[in-house]
Amino acid sequence: MKMSPYYKTFEPEIVQWDDKLQKTRIILDIWIDVQKKWVYLEGIFFGSSDIKEMLSNEYTRFKGIDNEFTTLMKKTSHKPHIMDVVGTPGLQKTLERLADLLAKIQKALGDYLETQRSQFARFYFVGDEDLLEIIGNSKDVTNVQRHFNKMFAGITSLTSEENGDLVTGMNSREGEVVAYDKGVKISEDSSIYVWLTKVED
Questions:
Q1: pLDDT digit string (tens) for 70-107?
Q2: Are 23 and 86 in contact (CB under 8 A)?
Q3: Alpha-carbon distance 109 to 54, whole Å?
Q4: What is the torsional sign of CA 9, 13, 16, 20?
Q5: Cβ 151 vs Cβ 166: under 8 Å
Q6: Number of neighbours of residue 186 by Cβ within 10 angstroms
Q7: Cα–Cα distances in angstroms (integers) from residue 131 to residues 18, 51, 99, 112, 172, in the given order
Q8: What are phi and psi of 155, to 5 degrees?
């Protein structure tokens, strides 16, 4: 538009609109980033009670962010015009602050998962979301064993008794069953990597 021979005629309006559109682009870029992080973390913190307990500080922080972000979204839903939305006082600073807080929570979550992987190396074979599901269902053999084919080359499932609390053997894809001399009692171990190590041994 600035290359147009008529630019000078409309320069004040063009400059004004250029500023508005630049501001809109910046705000929407930050907003999309916040929303992506929020959706990811919401599924983690509100989907598993175990994760809430293990990362209680991050969960408390996320609850505050969730409240602020959902309030912002509700206010925005009453403003159908984009220029009204981007004209909200302090919107860009609020979104930048939320993006920063969410990034810190994601980093804490990443550090926590790295700690889990360092305690049981086979966790390196599963992605973050799968690992979170495994940790979140640490006492539920049925849910954990769905990921076995990623962690173990020859084990697809476990044989268990006592409502899944006592693991008595392992099964291969080919149907081979190996019974343990001594069963692994899941409820005796507070952390999943402990009973998985016993299963592996």
A1: 999 998 888 888 888 888 888 999 999 999 999 999 99
A2: yes
A3: 10
A4: negative
A5: no
A6: 24
A7: 46, 11, 24, 11, 22
A8: -110, 130
